[in-house]
Amino acid sequence: MKITIFGSGYVGLVTGACFAEVGNDVLCVDIDRKKIDALNEGHIPIYEPGLEEIVVENSRAGRLKFTSDIREGVEFGLYQFIAVGTPPDEDGSADLRHVLSVAESIGTYMQEYRIVINKSTVPVGTADLVREKISSVLAERSSGVDFDVVSNPEFLKEGDAVNDFMKPERIIVGVDDPRTKELLRFLYSPFNRSHERFIAMDIRSAELTKYAANAMLATKISFMNEIANIAERVGADVEAVRRGIGSDSRIGFSFIYPGVGYGGSCFPKDVQALERTAHKYGYHSRILQAVEAVNEDQKSTIVRKIRLHFGEEIGGRVFALWGLSFKPNTDDMRAAPSRRVIEELLQAGASVRVYDPVAMHEAERIYGDREGIYYAANPEDAVKGSDALVVLTEWLVFRSPDFEMVKRDLKTPVVFDGRNIYNPEFMEISGFTYYSVGRPPRGV
Ligand code: UDX
């Protein structure tokens, strides 16, 4: 099948490469020429395990091509995916400028039947706007070409996106026309082999499914962070509570890990956008507001613990920060808790020695040569001469460090663990003062 993907960002690139991987001819379009040139030379602009291999392999096989020529894109594929960014605008609603501009181009250049598929995360009702936009451009051209609009949200996790695409748990397709539904079912058939994962529904339900899924996961995390905060006050251990409730299959073990708050490009943005959509339709969502408020507060809990330990005045102190990305296996620092922690420490006059296995270049892009930030060469280098170690992302390499070295190189043996990756007894026996999330501090 011939497929065009508008937007060669994270979602577009993974979608394009995976469709090519199963034998389709895919053309990825992006207005950023530099990005397209780099992709044509086999350079991937993002860090995503397994992606580079399939991009390079399928480009070489001639099944995956890149262009910045929009017209060529519209003429190429029967399936036209929209996978452009929907950044939040000032009030937290999703900004649809890019989505509607692609719709306009499709309307402008379309010469025969096209299926326009929305993959970008967009508010309920966007498919209707896309349809209206294309229809109005066609009317201006006095063209009667037929087209259909479909909603097909993505559920890709950063760090595991290729796998999520190749072996999806569900393929959500919002579609009105029965014939288009079958064309979509055919397109996804290579990824829908062992059992039925294709779930077709009306368009608005598909659009809402995406937000509901992310909001539910974010709710689980905020709920658990709140339980952690309660555990700290009543002297309980949230890790025991987590195991205790997770074993109830109705609750489950996933997404109930307390920590320093969720970050990334989806949860913060989508919770806010759904709340705005509800508001627009006259509904005040107390749960969504609380999920966001708890998360915002959670990002500050570790600095509060630092102040409790060292006293309000932390100016002049130095902190080693391990982990900058919003989660392991990605270099993405969008809405990462580390950014709040860095900001609060610098504001207080402290300095930071930061280290991350892959996000160093991203950190340097964000902070440049800002005063108070030292970019460490490795975890050991970050610890050297610091007053305390602060762990913010649970990268595997941080799980079993050389604690003798850490103790020797820190000015005082204090560890603030924002992800509960160390065993409190072990830390105390090893001579550390140890603070974690939702568990009593040790060695204080
Ligand atoms: C998420 C959804 O999982 C994915 O389906 C959707 O398409 C996009 O948004 P992603 O943002 O890549 O994916 O990250 P995810 O693995 O879901 O983690 C999100 C955040 O929640 C991270 O900051 C992570 O550290 C945090 N988290 C996750 C917790 O704090 N506790 C948990 O138990 C799980």
From TrEMBL:
Q: Which PROSITE patterns match?
A: PROKAR_LIPOPROTEIN
Top-level class of the enzyme under EC nomenclature: oxidoreductase
Residues that hold NAD(+) according to the record: D30, K35, T86, T121, E158, K269, R334
The entry's substrate-binding residues are: F155, L156, K157, E158, K210, F255, I256, Y257, P258, G259, G263, K327
Q: Tell me what reaction this enzyme catalyses.
A: UDP-alpha-D-glucose + 2 NAD(+) + H2O = UDP-alpha-D-glucuronate + 2 NADH + 3 H(+)
Task: Name a GO molecular-function annotation.
Answer: UDP-glucose 6-dehydrogenase activity
Annotated pathway = Nucleotide-sugar biosynthesis; UDP-alpha-D-glucuronate biosynthesis; UDP-alpha-D-glucuronate from UDP-alpha-D-glucose: step 1/1
Q: Where is the active site?
A: C266
What's this protein's function? Catalyzes the conversion of UDP-glucose into UDP-glucuronate, one of the precursors of teichuronic acid.
Q: Name one Pfam family in it.
A: UDPG_MGDP_dh_C
Q: Which GO terms describe its biological process?
A: polysaccharide biosynthetic process; UDP-glucuronate biosynthetic process
**NCBIfam families annotated for this entry?**
NDP-sugDHase
EC numbers, comma separated: 1.1.1.22
Identify the domain of life.
Bacteria
User: Does this entry carry the keyword Cell membrane?
Assistant: no
Tell me which UniProt keywords the record has, alphabetically.
NAD, Oxidoreductase
| Protein name, per record | UDP-glucose 6-dehydrogenase
User: Hey, which family's this protein in?
Assistant: Belongs to the UDP-glucose/GDP-mannose dehydrogenase family.
